[in-house]
Amino acid sequence: MALLYFSYYLPKNLSNPLHLQMSLENSLSSDADVTFSILAMNNWYNFSLMLCQEEWNITDFLFLTQQSSKFHLGSIINITANLTSTSDLLNYLQLYLESIKDTTSTMVMFGCDMEKTRRIFEITTQFGVMPPELHWIIGDSQNVEELRTEGLPLGLIAHGKTTQSVFEHYVQDAMELVARAVAAATMIQPELALIPSTMNLATAGGESTQNYKVFLANTTFDGLSGHIKVKGSSIVSSENNFFIWNLQHDPVGNPMWTRLGSWQEGKIIMDYGIWPEQAQRHKNHMQHPTRLHLRVVTLIEHPFVFTRDVDDEGFCPAGQLCLDPLTNDSAVLDSLFETLQGGNDTVPIELKKCCYGYCIDLLEKLAEDMNFDFDLYIVGDGKYGAWKNGHWTGLVGDLLAGTAHMAVTSFSINTARSQVIDFTSPFFSTSLGILVRTRDTAAPIGAFMWPLHWTMWLGIFVALHITAIFLTLYEWKSPFGMTPKGRNRNKVFSFSSALNVCYAILFGRTAAIKPPKCWTGRFLMNLWAIFCLFCLSTYTANLAAVMVGEKIYEELSGIHDPKLHHPSQGFRFGTVRESSAEDYVRQSFPEMHEYMRRYNVPATPDGVAYLKHDPEKLDAFIMDKALLDYEVSIDADCKLLTVGKPFAIEGYGIGLPPNSPLTSNISELISQYKSHGFMDVLHDKWYKVVPCGKRSFAVTETLQMGIKHFSGLFVMLCIGFGLSILTTIGEHIVYRLFLPRIKKKSRMKYWLHTSQRLHRALNSSFIEDKFLHALKHNYKNYFEMKYVVSGYLLMDLIHLKDNRNKKRKPDRIDKGGRNELIKPSSFMILHTSNKSTPILKTGFAVF
């Protein structure tokens, strides 16, 4: 069995080759490698060193820099003796920093703990002796939990571990090293398998020992304490995985340590593929926060991202310049952006677009507050991202491949995407919805009745007849009414007259009517007129909207509607391919997803176009409700409508690569934007569109109604013509069949309160016969008769003297003790051949 020593000191020579030693402290060579890599990646070849301890080992670092001819060491400033006195330290730093400001771009500090480092920067900043363009790097590994921001300059770079390995981690890694080596030896050369009862490498031949050492030397793995490997003959190295930090401003302007990358397996792995640019000065000679340069990918989705063409010179008067490369090849994008940023811009103008919208405004605000620059491009395949053919597509694929450092659009946060990339907190909350198209239909025959409910129509006509009954009762009971007993009037107000008045007021008929004469009747008639005014006003206000025709559409209750789960009769619905909506349907309703796959579309505008196409290519379109609501609001034809209950509540977030240090910063900033009202401002700006149905340009077209809209009225008029014929036939039947039978009876002949015409028809023959009988028996000579027809006909009879030589005016005929007014309707004197016996033929009307 191999024996391992754990020590905090430098390794010592061991006689037994199987006695291994593992150091429990960070290797100075690892710190040197990390610092050297930082300088090399930033091309900071001119550097100086600052030492805070007299005997600090910088041999490994100097060895690395001396191996490359590009590096130039300026000065080694040892401030160990000057740390006790502030004035001495100030003078010393002022002297050396002034001498190196023109030859050195970077200062690397070794052997300085955080307290000494903070004191150095406080003094140099207070007295203004620090060169503003100088980069500062702490070469020693730091404990991240102990890093502070007070008194440190922006742009300072440090490296360290987030957690310190404990002793148990080293023991477990050492045991795993031996186990892995034995396992490898057993698999490759089974004859070397160790059996404790038969073999001991310490006393066995040298060949077995050397073979085992080879397997130990070739065994490497990532353990709990770091990357484990064997150096030399007996040194077990645990190379820690460091994180590289940079002091920057947080979203609210306070200094904050931001992670830039990590040190793994002897190389730096950057989070964004970029490093901070050189610090710049304020007008007051204070340093600017270090600016990052990010590449941002987006996807066109209204109203979050719009595009329009650039001007003739290739610039954007408004919005952000973005590229539409139609590819996600990182090399092609690098070449395009390098060309775009260079002095000779040869990027084809057809690849340039101007991007603007909700998300672009949010991106500009983030860039301003977080102090970064960005290059913007449109995702090549036009997809949000899904797992397809063994890899991620769309926005997710670009983030995972390192092509983009950030994805800003209507990017839905779902489980599948969150497992492979990072999302910020949602900046927009939404859900999934269903979009359908409305269709205008011709108004049915009875559409003119729709403005009022059938109960209202019934109530109006019941109220009309009740009002007519009360008008008749009030008129006949009043001493001033239009009745035979009321002031001896020539006309009579009957129930038919009351109906005529009520119908004329209701429908605004201008024909002559017989109004009531009593005060109560007139008050009730005016009250009925007010009632009709409000009813007809309501009817007229709703008539235009109803007569246009009913808007029919696919009535869907939501995602659980049977039409979606059991589609029939060619019902077609779909969504956007590789979107969160498709992922939701695939996970929740596999059978539905299998059916709708044939109807899925590449993008949201395509789905809307399929709905509005004549004939329709889709009956329903499932997508984010935030996008559907916007499409409804801008629909000029007002034919789109969202139906059903929302489902699958989700949010839009900014996509970032996995383990991105910017995730928490952007999330915090988005929360502040929400609380401060900035997100509401964006919503009002891009969603404040006049809703469909309230646009003035749509009203004129909507209210243009043709004959088809009033077909019901024409049909009603034709039915009225037919009913009038039936009414005429009914009049003849009553006149020829029922009236003669009633005349033969002595009862039921007084109908004056109901209908004057009916009363006249029942009583005219009786009065005429009685009058002629009187003429024959009471008068021997004929009269000279004069009549005047003006409204009511008045007849004056001039009589000769009778047998008693007494004049008499037969203007009234006694009938059953009542005086009845006689009105001749026609009068004619016919002479016989001998001209001696005149025959009087006349007709009478009784009112």
TrEMBL record:
Positions marked as site (Crucial to convey clamshell closure to channel opening): 556
Domain (Ionotropic glutamate receptor L-glutamate and glycine-binding) ranges: 348-401
Topology of the protein relative to the lipid bilayer: Multi-pass membrane protein
Cross-referenced SMART domains: Lig_chan-Glu_bd, PBPe
Site feature: Interaction with the cone snail toxin Con-ikot-ikot: 586
GO cellular component: postsynaptic density; postsynaptic membrane
Catalyses which reaction(s): Ca(2+)(in) = Ca(2+)(out); Na(+)(in) = Na(+)(out)
Cystine connections: 638-692
Compartments where found: Cell membrane; Postsynaptic cell membrane; Postsynaptic density
Record domain Ionotropic glutamate receptor C-terminal: where: 339-689
Positions with a binding annotation for L-glutamate: 412, 417, 580, 624
Keyword Disulfide bond set for record: yes
Highest taxon, organism lineage: Eukaryota
Cross-referenced InterPro entries: Glu/Gly-bd, Iono_Glu_rcpt_met, Ionotropic_Glu_rcpt, Iontro_rcpt_C, Peripla_BP_I
TM annotation in the entry: 454-473, 493-512, 524-548, 713-739
CDD domains membership: PBP2_iGluR_NMDA_Nr3
GO molecular function, one term: NMDA glutamate receptor activity
Family, similarity comment: Belongs to the glutamate-gated ion channel (TC 1.A.10.1) family. NR3A/GRIN3A subfamily.
Oligomer status and interactors: Heterotetramer. Forms heterotetrameric channels composed of two GluN1/zeta subunits (GRIN1), and two identical GluN3 subunits (GRIN3A or GRIN3B) (in vitro). Can also form heterotetrameric channels that contain at least two GluN1 subunits and at least a combination of one GluN2 and one GluN3 subunits (in vitro). Does not form functional homomeric channels. Found in a complex with GRIN1, GRIN2A or GRIN2B and PPP2CB. Probably interacts with PPP2CB. No complex with PPP2CB is detected when NMDARs are stimulated by NMDA.
Function: Receptor for glutamate that functions as a ligand-gated ion channel in the central nervous system and plays an important role in excitatory synaptic transmission. L-glutamate acts as an excitatory neurotransmitter at many synapses in the central nervous system.
Name of the protein: Glutamate receptor
Protein source organism: Buteo japonicus
